[in-house]
Specification:
Elements lengths: L7 H13 L2 H8 L3 H15 L4 E3 L4 E3 L1 H25 L7 E7 L1 H18 L3 E7 L13 E5 L8 E8 L1 E6 H7 L12 E4 L6 E6 L2 E6 L1 E5 L7 H5 L5 E4 H10 L2 E3 L9 E7 L7 H20 L5
Parallel strand pairs: 3-4, 3-5, 8-11
Antiparallel strand pairs: 1-2, 5-14, 6-14, 7-12, 7-13, 9-10
């Protein structure tokens, strides 16, 4: 017996209308008559006794009640979609949308080529991929997979380590000629640094059993991480870049290693995803593809000594 005062179908369409931003956009996006959507929304509002979306010339958008309902309903709808896809497509060709997040430099150089190859093999899979160095809230933004680098905060997310990434202190050959290069870690405090994070106030270096933590003087803050190579090449200062990003420039002599006897601790690379009991086949397959190929593609970008 249905004890709800409204139809789950009407709730589903409310979520789609809210996601589209208006009845008109939802009508165009889902090819459903605006009058039909309006009737469904009115029926839901009447059943609940509240206004969910303001609809007049002066005001547009969700009411406070509508925002609260959408916040509670979206995870439920997402779960039902995932579960349905799992049942329907368990043995069939993978299909549907996979939402993915990855950092700038690593995303462009390693993750994107893997994703494009995957999409060519599975033409019914669509991908929504965001390149950002920000830690995106996977649940709030309905992200299926995030490729994250570095220390992970404690959370309810599922995390799987798939590789490690080295960072290299480097500068342009022009900077080395004009400003000289440090010969010991303490000399770094007299040089300009280019960073991708506001939190990068210190730098940890290791050489054998020795460890040094250096305070750096930041001249330029630039994000995302894939943009930082250009000012380094321009000779504006020293930066610690992903090895995959600068390896071929070091090999050509355009960039030079700074303090080559000292290393920056390597970062772990993780595949992170919401803890869901059911995942669509497309999501599962792409996760396995990333786990298998990230170490291979990363290695190919670093010339063997």
């Amino acid at each position: 017996m249905n004890t709800l005062p409204y139809s789950l179908d009407d709730l589903y369409w409310f979520a789609l209308i809210a996601g589209a931003g208006s009845l008109s956009r939802a009508s165009r996006e889902y090819d459903v008559a605006k009058s039909t959507l309006s009737r469904r929304l009115a029926r839901l509002e009447e059943a609940m006794g509240i206004t969910l979306i303001q609809r007049n010339a002066a005001v547009s958008g969700l009411t406070d009640a509508g925002k609260k309902l959408l916040e509670e309903a979206q995870p439920l709808i997402r779960h039902l979609e995932t579960f349905s896809s799992e049942l329907i497509g368990r043995e069939g060709e993978p299909a549907g949308v996979v939402r993915l997040s990855a950092s700038g430099a690593f995303g462009h150089l390693v993750v994107l080529p893997i994703v494009l190859d995957f999409m060519c093999r599975y033409p019914r899979v669509d991908v929504e991929m965001e390149m950002t160095d920000r830690r995106v809230d996977l649940v709030a933004n309905a992200i299926d997979i995030a490729v994250r680098i570095g220390v992970l905060a404690d959370s309810d997310l599922s995390a799987r380590k798939v590789a490690t990434a080295r960072r290299v202190l480097c500068a342009s050959a022009g900077y080395a000629k004009t400003c000289g290069l440090p010969t010991q870690p303490d000399d770094l405090e007299n040089h300009d640094f280019l960073t991708q994070s506001r939190n990068a106030a210190t730098l940890e270096l290791r050489s054998g059993s020795r460890t040094r933590t250096i305070t750096i003087r930041r001249r330029l803050l630039l994000a995302p991480s894939d943009e930082l190579l250009v000012p380094v090449q321009a000779g504006l200062g020293i930066a610690h870049l992903a090895e995959i990003q600068c390896a071929r420039h070091l090999a050509s002599g355009e960039l030079v290693r700074v303090l080559p006897d000292w290393d920056i601790p390597a970062f772990d690379i993780y595949l992170v995803s919401p803890n869901r009991r059911y995942r669509p086949r497309a999501v599962r397959l792409l996760m396995e593809e990333l786990a298998d190929r990230i170490p291979i593609v990363s290695g190919e970008l670093v010339p063997q000594e």
